[in-house]
Write a structure and sequence with these properties.
The protein is 67% helix and 0% strand. The protein is an all-alpha fold.
């Protein structure tokens, strides 16, 4: 029988409140969706069903501008997370990125992805990442 472990919300900084931290975690868990959305808005109208459906419902709309704006919105969010991960821990960036965007625990990163650091150090970086992300409030909330 597998034990279900409920993740605890650790205070990464006194100014980052519990619900703000949850908001940031859920923001980061959308990363795979942003990558897919960014790829879908590549300028080829016949590539993605949601894009075709959207195009058919609004005749006369400026699709090029809408697609460019959507693609840019996804790209900004992807870059924000990647830049903060890289500047937080450049040597551990691949593991930290997996942890914050896929919700992987340290145990999973250690056993399946062979992270080269101890648990305490990883979670220190993990909390620091969310503190730094919280400083980008305007970018995250748009």
């Amino acid at each position: 029988m597998t034990e279900i472990v409920k993740p605890e919300i650790h205070n990464c900084h006194p100014k980052v409140k519990k619900h703000r931290l949850l908001e940031l975690k859920h923001f980061c868990l959308q990363y795979p969706d942003w990558q897919k959305g960014y790829a879908d808005f590549d300028g080829f109208f016949n590539r993605s069903e949601p894009i075709r459906t959207h195009r058919d419902k609004a005749p006369g709309a400026d699709y090029t501008a809408r697609y460019a704006e959507a693609r840019l919105r996804y790209l900004k969010r992807i870059q924000l997370v990647e830049e903060i991960v890289e500047s937080t821990a450049s040597e551990l960036a691949p593991w930290l990125l997996k942890g914050v965007t896929e919700g992987l625990s340290y145990e999973c990163l250690k056993t399946k992805h062979n992270i080269p650091c101890c648990r305490d150090f990883y979670y220190k970086l993990y909390r620091y990442f969310f503190f730094r992300l919280s400083l980008n409030t305007e970018t995250v909330r748009r």
